[in-house]
Amino acid sequence: MNIFAITASAVLAMGSPHTATLSHQGEDHAVTYTPKVAVEYRTVGMSAGPRPSTERCRWVGTVAVDRHLHDDQGRRLTKTLDAVHRMEGSRHGACAPARAAIDQEIAARHDEVTAHVQRVAAADRDAALADLRTGRQFASN
């Protein structure tokens, strides 16, 4: 018999933002790519008195990237990009007591998160320019 219990998700601020500059119509725009890690914890199995426990905490972390386009007038256009990186793992026992250790395990994968953000930023240049053009058209109407 399996007992499933899902504990609350956590959103961790991880990794340092990646910054770049885009030139559009003679103006430079600062672009910041910020990682957002959402972690879902799920306890599976059971613990029944003196019997050996079969409980495991399975976790899945998804890394999304928020893009913030800034102009010189302080306006900002923010978009969550579609590229998502997935991390997962498991630990013996229930999730509640293991959450802090799991969060530390995810934080230790800082380089993996940073590499994902940099890949997304490099692939996003054309889309960011298109969003700048679209934003300009909306601003002028």
Task: Characterise the protein shown here.
The structure is a single chain. The protein has three helices and five strands, in the order E-E-E-E-E-H-H-H. 19% of the residues are buried. Mean pLDDT is 82; it is low at 1-9. Strands 1, 2, 3, 4 and 5 form a five-stranded antiparallel sheet that branches. 28% of the residues lie in helices and 47% in strands. It is rod-shaped. With 141 residues, the chain is of the alpha+beta class.
Mean pLDDT: 82
Reading the helices and strands in chain order gives EEEEEHHH
The total count of helices amounts to 3
Question: How many strands appear in the DSSP assignment?
Answer: 5
In what range is the share of β-strand residues? over 45%
Helix content: 25-40%
Cα-atom Rg, whole angstroms? 20 Å
Low-confidence blocks of residues: 1-9
Largest sheet: 5 strands, antiparallel
Secondary-structure class: alpha+beta
Oligomerization state of this entry?
single chain
The shape is rod-shaped
Distance between the termini: 62 Å
Q: What features would you highlight for this structure?
A:
single chain; 141 residues; alpha+beta; five-stranded antiparallel sheet; 3 helices; 5 strands; 28% helix; rod-shaped; disordered N terminus
Topology:
Layout: E1 5-13, E2 18-24, E3 27-44, E4 56-70, E5 76-92, H1 99-107, H2 110-123, H3 125-140
Antiparallel strand pairs: 1-3, 2-3, 3-4, 4-5
